[in-house]
Amino acid sequence: MKNNDKIPAGNPFKVPGNYFEAVTRKIISSTVENQREIKKPGFYLKMRPFLAVAASVAVLAILSYTGIKLFPPRNVSLSLSGISVEEYSETLLNDIDLLTLEEIAALPGLPQDQENQFVDKKDIIEYLMLENIDINEIHDQL
Amino acid sequence: MIIEISLNLYTFYQSKDKISTALSDQRSDSDIQKLLETNIDQGFRLVVEKYSTRLYWHIRRLVILHEDADDALQNTFINVWRNISNFRRESSLYTWLYAIATNEALALINKRTRNSAVSLDDLGSWFANSTEGSTWFDGDEAQLKLQNAILKLPEKQRIVFNLRYFDEMTYEEMSIVLNTSVGALKASYHHAVKKIENILTGI
Q1: Contact flag A28-B135 (C-beta cutoff 8 Å)
Q2: Nearest CA in chain A to B201
Q3: Which residues pair with B153 in a beta bridge?
């Protein structure tokens, strides 16, 4: 087809001087040579992920330590040490629904687990007396 | 004296570069492909040295502007570099490179069509009114008419015409590059030539 007389041959386009040498160098430097640089990372680059993890852990530890030192959980420790055994027992007993417990105890033939079989009735009475529970009510129930 | 030595050294390195390029041009594709398996860096250098000029002109004829051709050529070789380890030895290096270059050129044309206000439908008026035209085009009136005629072809016909007419690629090679049957390519080329002849002769 090069011999087609009706279609002109030749290349009408131009390029800047030494373009092909320059572009070849540019391509090589952005591919082969760039890859080489990536292939050989320094010690810091290799260790960077590990250093980042170590730094994060250290920061968290420092923050936690500082937080505990600056804002100790004072209220909790004070309230626990300040509460007497009596107060604690009273609160506990208020939380227990005594009526329900008594009803359960009055029910005959309830299955008892092995541990309860070894609890003496006297122990129960002593315990209830110790907790200031009305003894008459206990007698009525028994 | 120092200037003379510097000039001699410069001439020596320039001639060394030219000799190296000439040697890489002489290397067959199968030699380069063998080298790619053992020394990928050296093999790739040879690919760039052997094909950069040819691929540039192929791209330039499609995108017309030097800046665009320069971008597309560099993108082509970056793609080649990224995928060269997957390149199968039984494939043809030449057609593989042309396929990548053609895709890059078409991607650039599509991007330009979407984003740019510049239309290259009429090269004559565009070259007359642009720095690029006056600097990087020195064809005569007939050449300008030919380029305008080629630009009027549908995209696929334009590529077929350029590959056959300027790069003298065989239809078999072209069928690999464009993933089209040989018969369709022959018909496409025939139509392209007829259209261009008609435009040039003013029919």
Answers
A1: no
A2: A6
A3: none
